Task: structure prediction
Amino acid sequence: MPDPIHQFDLERLFHLNLFGYDASFTNSSLYMVVVVVAIVGFLLYAIQTRSLVPTRLQSLAEMAYEFVAGMIRDSMGEEGMKFFPLIFTLFMFIFAANMIGLIPGAFTVTSHVIVTAALALLVFLTVIIAGFAKNGLGFLKLFVPDGVPIYVLPLVSAIEVISFFSRPISHSLRLFANMLAGHITLKVFAGFIVMLLGSAGAAKFLMPLPLIAVVGITALEFLVAFLQAYVFTMLTCMYLNDALHPSH
Amino acid sequence: MSTQKQGNGGSRGELRHDDKEAFERRLAGLGKRLGDVKSREAAESMASRGRSSQNRGMAYGLRMASELVAAVLVGGLIGYALDHFLGTKPWLFLVMFILGFAAGVTNVMRSYDRVQRDVAKTTGGNIGHAVPDDNDD
Result:
């Protein structure tokens, strides 16, 4: 049976050593470049004509814009549109990385926790910096909910602090775990097909069962790839909204 | 009707009786077809809204579990680190672990509130259909 974890192995393509750190160009880096090139290429090609009646590709690009802009306006109002470049980039990067990862043989960038943690920390630091820049020390009101009696305030504040610091964890773990689990499941079920085919006797005729399962799971994975990009983006909007309006 | 000329045998403005009947029949048919198309479109938009809210429901559901677990993890970690530096093993860990659980429950309740608000916004507050009561007293 093929090793289901093997698909997540990192391989150094070019060796590179920067100030004592191993900064080699790996297959993960390669696929990040592929993702970014695919997004930029698609968007530039799609808006080439810029016609009033859009071509199919142009309307796809417009749909992506409208989708993210609608999400921002829903959660933060017009004020949030200054974060549009960040949020649109995050959405497109995660969505494209998840989708390209579904191509058989391709590497899934978002299945490594270090990548999703870096993205989540980027959002977390943006929230903190934007919060203090906009509200000054008023940002700390986030940890002091209104209408709480003074004698339980330390307890409630401690809970709020933990809840605040749990955000980057759940933000990154959710995306990483979903992608990892989905790809392992696909590999394991695909391995069953080979095992059953290679087995002697009547077990051979059970082969269509995992095959049907793999087809179904692949469809589900396409849904998950979109949903996880959507959830990540929606939570980013929600956290940034807290930075703009710290009181609950 | 204002342009009709009198005594002109009804050749332009005024329709003859049977023509008028046919015209009214066609008008009624058109009205009916238009109504059909409109109701079909309304049903389709309802269905697509249902689908999109179903997708969003799945997105919310996937979130809840990780919110809870992450808060417990972070609470435990903070407690463990404080214990390590202050030398108060294992008391702060236990306290922060429980507080982390409380924070997790708070997180889940908050996201549930948000779901409720979103659903109320998109459906205008009426969720599902009214069902006739079986045991009317």
